[in-house]
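Self-study notes.
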Amino acid sequence: MPRFHNICGNRVQFTEAEETARDAEEQAWSDGAFDRDIAHLRNARNRLLAETDWMANSDVTISDDWKT
């Protein structure tokens, strides 16, 4: 299926080189999906750890609720 640019209100079909470049961009984006998902999980994990790290200080008594 051909792709088109919108240039000054006119539809202009991609050239062969533009199609190839766009295909490569889409493939690179698709290939990076796992890395993006892992980074998102890592950020969420780090945020949760930062919110609770203070409970592990030696001068803090941890309740049974926090232990579980």
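Second protein, same conventions, sequence then structure:
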Amino acid sequence: MVIAGAGPAGSATALLLARRGLRVLLVDRAEFPRDKPCGDCVSPGANRLLRGWGLWDAVLARSPALIDGWAIRCGGHGFASRFPATDGARPRSVALPRRELDDVLRSAALDAGAVPVLADVLDVLYDGRRVTGLLCRTSAGTTTLRARLVIGADGLRSRVARRVGAAGPAGPLRKLSLTAHVRGVRPALVRGEMHVAPGLCIGIAPVGGGADPVHNLTVVGDARRFGRDVAADPARFVDRALRDVDHGAADSPAARLRDARPAVPAPARGPRHPRFGALLASGPFDRPTRAVTGPGWALVGDAAGYYDPFTGQGVHAALAGAELLAACAADALERADAQPLHGYARTARRRTRSARRLQWLVESFVARPALLAGVSERLDRAPAFLQGLLAATGDLAAPASILRPERLAQLVLPPRRGDADGHDR
């Protein structure tokens, strides 16, 4: 089979299929390792998958940061919480640059027998009934790659999804982002932070260890409101965002980044900030799909429907989707029957629907900073609810769990003794 895209979803799918003894071609137009705009955080739930596949030691060998929770700030108000303990252990999110995570997954796939192909996907091939392969451009010219199943794992603007007619119209959540990797954040963080202002969100999180650790700085903005500003001068937009979320406290982004400097040399081309270095751009987000499977094809990862970056569930969705698709695809090829792929589609739709409901809940507050600031005191007194929210966004519990009446009641009822475990300002 042929997989278009060697990011987390594509490489994980290739790894699991190759381990089943299937011949897999893993196609990507980029040389690896490569930089990708991303928040760089891998949820505790995704960590469980990496452990199950035997990749945890390889991830730890890249010297990631381990994050125990998240804090959200809005105009000087805010709340913070750690991931809830399970079986007596406190789970943590692992954070490392995407070039490192992608390289771990892709290397594992190649070690398992997947064959790398450096090529740009031009189109899908049809025999009149089903997809039969890909038309690609390589350094030697155009070539065809025939396969019993084509898997599109080629990201937010998936060419496979467009060519098979699965790409839907742009969704209502129009966001863009700029990411930099910096050193000199003071003090170095042990958890991630989100700072919210109208139309803006700034995330800061450690993504490496050491005495002067690397931090990820990502600015997310409303594309309709700030798109032209970003296109005209990305660095100036970043500075404006820092001013807009500055609440004058020691934990404001401007204060944290006062001594920041680039963690990596800026490339010769592309946008850059005079203090933070290279700026990696992404967006607009919210790319729904009409379907995730069809005759001879399937989609996984961002290609199957993008997740709002605020919740940080994208990598887990990619890896969990890869695990499910690999099992269903192997079964479908062995039986020469598309029924297992229909099962993948049903499960993928159910997971996406549940996760999007949680995203809509979070976005309803993030998009209205005044509302978020107004409820921050109540949230601060509802540690059980906050831990439930982190369990859901950390992929430790089903997204729907936070929407249950007993969970929502925790926002209204006074906290019980012991509820404050893991919660702090």
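Instructor comment on the second fold: The longest helix spans residues 339-366.
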